[in-house]
């Protein structure tokens, strides 16, 4: 099997299969993506988190090698004013799903660097849960218009 | 006989009138004649040149408050506006979107330029002094607040989420509810923008009103 | 400032008309406020105008000047009671706060604060001013031309119409209702011209109404009898109650303006904001009528005291030479 084919197969597998790599909790991260606007400005991370276990999970943080810090944030539009608030923890009920999507929950990546600045490829993001477990997944890196 | 003809005429006119009335409905909130005209002095992208409302005569102009440390809502708003612009076809070249930063301390012209460039050629960044910004927000009853902090994670900024739309002579015409909501009316905005670009100028009265 | 000012024209050559000098000062302060608002809006203090308006500024500053001047021109013994002076100053201050300070910004971004603003400019502020019954003092401090204008026949005729009990009552509640029609409210909040019109109409109507109601005199000098005024004052409660209850119990937000231009407090939802506003229309506004009612009863009592030969304080002559203290039976 030629090398490129293996590569393509791997990529396909990565894209198609729920990208849960490691981690103790029975959680699956899909549709991970990082939206990078400017090197000097925070980037936003979006994903869907599915709790496939029978126990409730509590998301308490996130990290990525190319973000100085990666925080859980929520955009709120309350009465016509936009604001952002930090989220310290977010429960995911058993067999429940939490969506981090534009205009709501998002990861805020302070001081993006490395691969993020190329606006191509993927970034490995790790989500941390209460109790010490974590899940890592590849997030596709995108620019403002994608 | 004459009476019947009259009724016939009326019957024919009714659907026409109804169609006309349906035509008159805007998708966004109509503020024609009540909201004040566009009026500002600020530095604009790309070079920091002084910009006023007169630079946007001839354009259908949208105005929105935001800031570049906003990684989620402001990009989402502008992505949705860009999607609406893409649906306006050729009209897009007569449309401009003014992104007015409420955080001029951190948002310098080069940063603004790079930020708005990501969304399309119709997007312009504007940076005013605190006084210029306050005057603009006051004129249009918009709200914003900045609570600075040395830690960028704690630096808090809030701003009104609406977009004002001005016609080609600078009169305020529409108020667009948040384009970062769950169901932004992208098609409606596109239709409204096209309608404004194809509108015939209002003549001397509209011009007079734009001066007020 | 008290006596010297009244004697000043004699001491200083006539060209230094103190009223002219003071009016010039008022104009100068106005110019500074106007300039500050236009050029340095971000640096203006909170008590300075949020949106400077010459009409509103002069409408507040000139009567204040005339009142203060009128006080200084009145012999100490004839001056209105200290409480009445305080009521006038408090009323004027309240109208200043609700029309020409940064409170306006807050009230443009929360419905319930907008209702509080209207309470201040339509109910409480004009109420306090009318309670002070400042006409005589104002007339003394006003320039002669202004006084002639105020006493001109057309003005009198107009006042007769708008202070007809039915018209006054209808105007009083009608204006509250009118500016709260959702579509009207939206455009009034968004248009600077309509906004000023709304606020001025509320202040002027408030003054007309409370001056009509709180006139301490009986019917011949006053336009209408105590009874008619008591009834008017009570009847206006009910439409306000209805409107307040309508807003308080409405289950859909009616005023989209605040959602479009932004509400200041994230913890107050559109509906809660509206409910709070409804409570303000409902309760304090009715309370104002009750307070007015009691004050009028007191006016009636004082008037009857006087008619019965009392010295206007607390005793009544029930028969020639026989006086009893009304304190004994009124409990005051």
TrEMBL record, chain B:
Alphabetic keyword roster: Copper, Disulfide bond, Metal-binding, Signal
Residues reported in the UniProt entry to bind Cu cation: 70, 74, 159
Gene3D superfamilies: Glutaredoxin (3.40.30.10)
GO molecular function: metal ion binding
Disulfide partners: 70-74
Signal sequence annotation: 1-21
Superkingdom in the source lineage: Bacteria
Family: Belongs to the SCO1/2 family.
Name of this protein: Thioredoxin domain-containing protein
Organism: Rhodopila globiformis (Rhodopseudomonas globiformis)
């Amino acid at each position: 099997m030629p090398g490129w084919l293996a590569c393509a197969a791997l990529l396909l597998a990565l894209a198609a299969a729920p990208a849960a790599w490691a981690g103790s909790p029975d959680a699956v991260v899909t549709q991970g993506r990082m939206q990078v606007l400017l090197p000097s400005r925070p980037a936003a991370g979006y994903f869907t988190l599915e709790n496939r276990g029978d126990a409730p999970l509590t998301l308490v943080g996130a990290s990525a090698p190319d973000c100085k810090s990666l925080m859980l944030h929520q955009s709120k539009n309350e009465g016509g004013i936009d604001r952002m608030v930090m989220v310290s923890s977010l429960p995911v009920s058993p067999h429940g799903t939490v969506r981090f999507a534009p205009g709501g929950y998002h990861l805020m990546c302070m001081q993006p660097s490395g691969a993020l600045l190329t606006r191509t490829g993927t970034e490995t993001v790790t989500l941390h849960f209460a109790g010490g477990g974590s899940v890592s997944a590849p997030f596709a890196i995108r620019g403002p218009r994608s | 006989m004459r009476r019947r003809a009259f009724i016939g005429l009326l019957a024919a006119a009714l659907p026409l009138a109804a169609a006309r009335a349906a035509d008159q409905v805007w998708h966004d909130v109509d503020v024609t004649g009540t909201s004040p005209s566009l009026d500002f002095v600020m530095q604009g992208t790309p070079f920091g040149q002084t910009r006023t409302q007169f630079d946007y005569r001839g354009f259908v102009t949208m105005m929105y408050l935001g800031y570049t440390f906003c990684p989620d809502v402001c990009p989402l708003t502008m992505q949705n506006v860009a999607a609406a612009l893409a649906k306006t076809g050729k009209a897009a070249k007569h449309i401009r979107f003014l992104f007015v930063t409420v955080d001029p301390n951190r948002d310098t012209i080069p940063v603004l330029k790079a930020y708005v460039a990501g969304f399309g050629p119709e997007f312009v960044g504007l940076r005013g002094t605190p006084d210029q910004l306050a005057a603009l927000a006051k004129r249009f009853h918009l709200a914003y607040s900045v609570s600075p902090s040395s830690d960028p994670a704690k630096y808090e900024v809030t701003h009104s989420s609406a977009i004002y739309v001005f016609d080609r002579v600078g009169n305020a015409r529409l108020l667009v509810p948040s384009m970062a909501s769950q169901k932004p009316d992208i098609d409606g905005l596109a239709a409204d923008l096209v309608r404004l670009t194809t509108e015939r100028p209002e003549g001397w009265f509209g011009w007079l009103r734009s001066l007020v | 400032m008290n006596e010297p000012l009244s004697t000043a024209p004699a001491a200083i050559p006539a060209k230094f008309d103190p009223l002219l000098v003071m009016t010039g000062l008022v104009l100068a302060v106005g110019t500074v406020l106007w300039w500050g608002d236009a050029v340095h809006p971000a640096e203006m203090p909170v008590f300075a105008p949020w949106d400077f308006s010459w009409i509103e500024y002069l409408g507040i500053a000139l009567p204040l000047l005339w009142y203060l001047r009128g006080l200084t021109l009145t012999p100490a013994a004839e001056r209105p009671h200290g409480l009445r002076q305080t009521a006038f100053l408090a009323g004027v201050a309240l109208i200043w706060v609700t029309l020409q300070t940064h409170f306006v910004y807050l009230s443009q971004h929360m419905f319930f604060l907008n209702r509080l603003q209207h309470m201040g400019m339509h109910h409480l502020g004009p109420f306090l001013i009318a309670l002070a019954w400042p006409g005589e003092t104002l007339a003394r401090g006003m320039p002669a031309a202004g006084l002639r204008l105020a006493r001109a026949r057309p003005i009198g005729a107009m006042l007769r119409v708008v202070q007809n009990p039915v018209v006054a009552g209808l105007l009083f509640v009608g204006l509250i209702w009118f500016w709260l029609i959702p579509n009207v409210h939206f455009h009034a909040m968004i248009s600077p011209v309509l906004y000023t019109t709304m606020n001025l109409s509320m202040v002027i109507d408030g003054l007309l109404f409370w001056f009509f109601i709180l006139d301490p005199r009986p019917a011949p000098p006053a336009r209408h009898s105590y009874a008619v005024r008591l009834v008017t004052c009570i009847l206006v409660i009910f439409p306000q109650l209805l409107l307040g209850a309508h807003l308080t119990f409405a289950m859909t937000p009616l005023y989209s303006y605040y959602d479009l231009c932004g509400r200041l407090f994230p913890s107050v939802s559109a509906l809660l904001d509206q409910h709070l506003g409804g409570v303000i229309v409902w309760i304090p506004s009715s309370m104002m009528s009750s307070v007015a009612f009691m004050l009028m009863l007191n006016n009636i009592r004082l008037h009857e005291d006087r008619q019965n030969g009392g010295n206007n304080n607390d005793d009544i002559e029930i028969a020639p030479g026989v006086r009893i203290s009304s304190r004994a039976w009124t409990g005051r």
